[in-house]
TrEMBL record:
Keyword Transcription attributed: yes
Gene Ontology molecular functions: DNA binding
Pfam families recorded: HxlR
Protein name: Helix-turn-helix transcriptional regulator
Species assigned in the record: Flavobacterium silvaticum
Sequence intervals crossing the membrane: none
Limits of the HTH hxlR-type domain: 15-118
């Protein structure tokens, strides 16, 4: 038996495979902050405080946790420059470039959705 998803008929096995793939992606880059951090770093290397100032509403603890997750998953590189003072910088890795199409699609959809809400409101 086939299922129709987004106007495309797919088998139950393909549906399961898609659910698993999307689940894996959301596990790694999901949440409120991860993609915002990656987008912020796309303009270049930043220190922790620069990132926190650039991302409105993120706490230091949350930023620290999210940066650790992004580093573990290969999206961010952390570099410590011995001081004094000790300086820690974060930069996107080449692996973060694999999210380019995802970010572009989200940007286009978000822009369209915001415009739709403005027209309706």
């Amino acid at each position: 038996m086939e299922t129709e998803i987004l106007n495309e008929k797919i088998s139950p096995q393909e549906c399961t495979a898609r659910l698993n793939a999307v689940g894996d992606a959301l596990y790694v880059i999901g949440g409120k902050w991860k993609l915002r951090i990656i987008i912020t770093l796309s303009s270049g290397t930043k220190r922790f405080n620069e990132l926190q100032r650039a991302i409105d509403g993120i706490s230091a603890k949350m930023l620290s946790n999210e940066l650790k997750d992004l580093e573990i998953n290969g999206f961010v590189r952390r570099t410590v420059h011995e001081g004094p003072p000790v300086v820690v910088e974060y930069e996107p890795t080449s692996y973060s470039d694999t999210l380019h199409d995802v970010l572009e699609s989200l940007n286009k959809w978000g822009t369209m959705h915001r415009e739709k809400l403005r027209k309706e409101g």
